[in-house]
Amino acid sequence: MLNILKNWKNQQNAASNLERYTKEDILKGEIPAHIAIIMDGNGRWAKKRSLPRIAGHHEGMKVVKRVTKLANQLGVKVLTLYAFSTENWKRPKMEVDFLMKLPEEFLNTYLPELIEENVRVKIIGDESALPSHTYKAIEKAVKDTEQNDGLILNFALNYGGRTEIVNASKALAEQVKSGTLNIEDIDEALFSKHLMTESIQDPELLIRTSGEIRLSNFMLWQVAYSEFVFTDVLWPDFKEDHFLKAVGEFQQRGRRFGGI
Ligand code: IPE
Ligand code: IPE
Ligand code: MG
To answer: Is the pLDDT of residue 169 over 90?
Structure first.
């Protein structure tokens, strides 16, 4: 029985490997203006190699660089990367401390290159709860790249979708209370502007790696009509080919938005 299952799985893998897309193929189709990625599976990648979980996070950082570069080459306007959720504070302190050092390492290593590539760094999430060293590194990157008008590399750091919606509601309620806003004027567009994504358009494509099929509190409002691509590939193994394949899958979808 186990062998039958194994063969079946191998055939599935072989079939999916056949579907390879080159950058040129992808550029012939519609490029999603905003791609969001739930970068998952770092811990399992490390475990498979008998390495500490943090080794997986470190490896995952290199993938961020490669995917950013490719997204920029494809003409993607916004790439939002889920780097740390409001729930991730539950992890062991040592792991959280490591994760909070990664933005600095990433930016120290790659900021000059990002600037050269005209990338603009942004952040969504509750920055006030970040350690000051993390906060300072990010603020510097945001400031140093604010003149750039290429790809927006938007890090979701200490981000939670429900808190974001609650905070937008509070901000609107305050305005109604102070008399500067009429309840009748609250609509979807105004609500969207009060989210952390502000003027950034909703993602057309959401990718999650590592085989988990859930949102984990990510962009709950913004993904209302996104196309979802779930892949079993663990984030540190996610290569350019996988990214192209996800965009290729997006290009095959029929998006109807409730129409016919
Ligand atoms: C994703 O990888 C990175 C973060 C959540 C910070 P994980 O650390 O969740 O890896 P798994 O899911 O345990 O394999
Ligand atoms: C989601 O991954 C958060 C990030 C990728 C930053 P998790 O690994 O934290 O999600 P769960 O716990 O499996 O839902
Ligand atoms: Mg995970």
So the answer is: yes
